[in-house]
From TrEMBL:
Membrane topology of this protein: Multi-pass membrane protein
Localization per record: Cell membrane
Entry coiled-coil feature ranges: none
Keywords carried by this UniProt record: Cell membrane, Membrane, Transmembrane, Transmembrane helix
Source species of the chain: Dactylosporangium salmoneum
Domain of life from the UniProt record: Bacteria
Protein name per the record: O-antigen/teichoic acid export membrane protein
UniProt entry tagged with the keyword Transmembrane: yes
Length: 427
């Protein structure tokens, strides 16, 4: 459990380092272009994870020997194809996108050479976690983070840090981690069959995968709407404050979901009263945690931003984004309960409602009050999502009944009854 959580922390740190260092080292205009390129890169990576990584985690853990080895081979081959297709698309976007304007996609050319190793590394983590070897997943994660850190330090010392350099450092880290995995496990990704993978796993590519896609489309749309309706400077301000405030909370939420969903699944199997009682307790605890977070993080982040001068104009964003963090925390008990009840379709409905309301709020808020209004519009979407989530939880709870045969009492509480979980959102 500890290695798995630490692995997640390491990968999250490697990803967030791009945005954080870009905000510190680059002028705002160039940082805005970097943030847009990263949004597109994360979108492609999360699509590959929904198709390969999450499915591998849910399915490969049930097999041993040759059946499992075949699944991993086919999954790696699918990730290889995803990376190659993404590389071609990124080069085309770089070549065809306008040279002027607020939506600047030219930084994608720096990501294009590394999309194959980025997706292979993500699939490799799925392989290790499915095999219950989080220590090895942590190992290749540390290789990624270490390589990336060395490259960044070299750029800073030689005064050559730029958007392209930060993206290259990220890609080099993924390449090193993927190479260690392929050599150590003696994997050749081209030996598998993407067609066989899609045929065999299509039953797992349903609601959870669609939910992940909706979430990532929503994240990508935010970047394009802010850059298009406002400016790259505004996108830089928004993404920097989100990286400081919201992304650590999202990482915490993902870790908490990994702990709470197995327990919620067991409670749901035993009947509604246990699940209802635990969810009520968790809602109270997370309401207190969210309140404390707003009261501490908001003034601290606002004070620091004001005194950085570079991001002083982004200081008013600290309050709505801190409130958004609290709302996301309050959603955790309801999300865990719905996953524990295996109500994937309801989760999809909730994500669609969240995407529609948040993007509408973002657009309207940006039109009336610029970036400050856009941030409050996103908070409106998050609040509507919380209300929808609570209503869907209450609806789903009505259909939970005690089973005819009770769950064995000797079953460990941390054994998940359903390994399929949708990806966390970052918006």
């Amino acid at each position: 459990m500890g290695a798995g959580l630490l692995d997640q922390v390491v990968i999250a740190a490697a990803n967030s380092a791009n945005t954080l260092l870009g905000g510190i080292l680059l002028p705002k205009g160039r940082f805005g272009a970097l943030a847009l390129a990263l949004a597109v890169g994360y979108f492609a990576t999360c699509l590959n994870r929904a198709i390969v990584g999450d499915v591998l985690l849910a399915l490969a853990s049930r097999f041993d020997g040759e059946p499992r080895a075949r699944l991993v081979r086919d999954g790696l081959a699918t990730a290889l194809c995803s990376g190659l297709i993404t590389t071609v698309v990124f080069v085309a976007l770089w070549a065809l996108s306008p040279s002027r304007g607020e939506i600047d996609l030219h930084q994608l050319v720096w990501l294009a050479p590394f999309m194959v190793p980025i997706m292979l590394h993500d699939t490799a983590r799925g392989d290790y976690l499915a095999a219950r070897r989080p220590d090895k997943a942590l190992g290749i994660g540390l290789v990624w983070a270490g390589t990336q850190s060395v490259a960044v330090v070299v750029m800073i010392l030689t005064h050559t840090a730029g958007a392209g350099g930060l993206l290259t450092a990220w890609g080099l880290g993924a390449t090193a981690g993927a190479t260690v995995y392929l050599v150590r496990e003696r994997r050749l990704p081209w030996r598998g069959s993407p067609r066989a993978w899609l045929a065999e796993t299509r039953h797992l590519s349903g609601w959870f995968t669609v939910t992940a896609i909706v979430a990532q489309v929503q994240v990508l749309a935010i970047s394009f709407i802010v850059a298009g309706r406002l400016s790259r400077i505004d996108l830089a301000n928004l993404r920097f404050v989100q990286t400081v405030e919201l992304q650590p909370v999202q990482n915490l939420i993902t870790a908490l979901q990994n702990l709470l969903v197995p327990r919620a699944s067991r409670d749901a199997a035993e009947g509604g009263p246990a699940l209802r009682r635990r969810t009520r307790q968790l809602v109270t605890a997370f309401a207190v945690l969210g309140t404390l977070l707003v009261l501490t993080v908001w003034p601290v982040v606002s004070f620091v931003l004001v005194h950085t001068h570079k991001f002083a104009e982004a200081a008013p964003l600290a309050l709505p984004i801190a409130l958004q963090c609290a709302v996301y925390l309050l959603q955790v008990p309801f999300t865990a309960a719905l996953r524990g009840m295996h109500r994937a379709r309801l989760l999809f409905v909730q994500y669609v409602a969240f995407a529609v309301v948040s993007l509408s709020g973002l657009t309207v808020g940006a039109g009336y009050a610029g970036l400050h209004g856009a941030a409050w519009g996103l908070l409106t979407g998050s609040t509507a999502s919380l209300i929808c989530m609570a209503a869907l939880y209450a609806f789903a709870l009505r259909s939970v009944r005690p089973p005819a045969r009770a769950v064995p009492r000797d079953l460990p509480a941390d054994v998940p009854l359903d390994a399929t979980q949708p990806a966390a959102r970052y918006s």
